[in-house]
Amino acid sequence: MAERISPWGIYDVFSVLDGEQIFLAVVGDSQWKIFCDAFGFADWFADPRLRTNNDRVLARDWMMPLLRERLAGHSAKALAAVFEKNGLPFALITDPQDLFSDPHLLATGGLAPMTLPDGRETASPLLPITLNGQRLGLRLNPPKLGEHGRELLEGLGYTVQEMDDLVQAGVVLAPE
Predict the structure, then answer these.
(1) What is the pLDDT along the chain (176 residues), one digit of tens a residue?
(2) Contact 5, 77 (CB under 8 A)
(3) pTM
(4) Which residue from 61, 128, 136, 173 has the fewest beta carbons nearer than 10 Å?
(5) Answer CATH for 10-93 from 3.30.1540.10, 3.40.50.300, 3.30.450.20, 3.40.250.10
(6) Is the dihedral of CA 71, 77, 78, 82 positive or negative?
């Protein structure tokens, strides 16, 4: 499969200090000036080969390795702070368990309460989708073992006798 050409000069995941990763985007010419000013890259801002986004797209082969070197000594949090302060797009790349303390999810209602099958309460990250300005909430809690089994089998066309046989054989759990 052919590799496609990026429509933006910088729209990539970077590996930085201590093996952390961060997604950074500099997609417009005004963002390029902000980015160069924020990181002291006056040499790049003055470079005619990098003047426009299209120029930066064409320069990715040599520019991106150099940019990765320039950013490698920064922590992801330090880069995020600079991008946040300057209104540039970024996203920290974290482990799934970090979603539960993610400032963006906490601030935007991106976590919903959920009851686990054993009765414990937890939270679940919601899909990053809104309809009419409202997040799609949690539809159902995860089922207990055997819960809804008969309804599912019935929907698949099993008879009561066939379902009883499956429960008897231990193939399907009966609800507790």
Answers:
(1) 456 677 899 999 999 999 999 999 999 999 999 999 999 999 999 999 999 999 999 999 999 999 999 999 999 999 999 999 999 999 989 888 888 888 888 888 899 999 999 999 999 989 888 899 888 889 999 998 888 888 999 999 999 999 999 999 999 887 76
(2) no
(3) 0.66
(4) 61
(5) 3.30.1540.10
(6) positive
